[in-house]
Amino acid sequence: MKTYLSTHFEFEFQVNEQFIEAHYECGHDKITRIRELMCHIINVQHIWISRILNETQESEDSDDLPFHSWAKLNLDNQQQIRFILHHYDIDSAISYTNSDGEHKTKSLVQLLTHLLQHGAYHRGQINYLLRQHDLEPISCNWINFDMDNKSRG
Question: What is the pTM of this model?
Answer without folding.
Answer: 0.91
